[in-house]
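tool=predict chain=A
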Amino acid sequence: MSASPGPLGFHAFTNGRRRSAIVSLCLLVAPATSARAQTRTSADSVRAAKSLFTWRDAALAAGFTTLTLATFPLDRTAAGELQEPSNQSNRFLRNASRDVQYVADPGSVVIGVSMYTIGRLGGWRNVADLGLHGAEAVALSGAVTAVVKGFAGRSRPYVSRDTNAHDFAFGRGFTGGQFASFPSGHTSAAFAAASAVTSESRRWWPHETWLVGTAMYGGATLVAVSRMYNNAHWASDVAVGAAIGTFSGLKVVRYSHGHPKNLLDRILLSAFAAPTADGMVIGASLEP
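tool=predict ok
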């Protein structure tokens, strides 16, 4: 690892820093690409889309696959650059990296549940809809991420950075968090929320979806970089986490609006509580 002082961007002239710059560029370009792609496909997500998968999904998957393959060889270089003393001693970077992580976890769940609750209590169905589907997307991405983590069994950077950046062992991820690096759970949660919100925004502000998407995916990217900065994940971990999260949000919203009478929506978006002479009655409309 180089001990050269100064910010990361000012040392791109060396080979190691040039590779790290490529990783950073990929991570910055990926969310913008996702936002543009989702803006183009948002109509599929919120109209009566009976087909859960489209050819655009294949194109998006190919993009994430390319990003992951590009970052794998650069994992160790990127980790080394972000652990430079000059970067780690920067108070702003330390504080910002900690704060954005909380926004992803537990923030994404807290915000989703809060929006759902406020929407239900206030009678704002769109707010409840957004909160519910956002929380569902985060839950789905979390489940998929947990399974992949367990089977992949990859060592975290603070465990194996100085030995092997690609230390995988089948099933080892179920034995402890230090072997649950691949993929990044914080990143998948952040991108799931970003994807769900961007998809839902098509129903509210169809002409501003690109703006919502850029803001949401930009924030999710900060979460991904913070996980690398804190030495908890490799670059390829966050790339795969971003893919899982993005697809989780897309699929939840597309399925929910393509099948508006699905069981979860029928129960959770139509549930009610009303006072009675004997107390409170809670129910839901379950018409087919």
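Strands lie at 272-276, 279-283. The chain has a mean pLDDT of 80.
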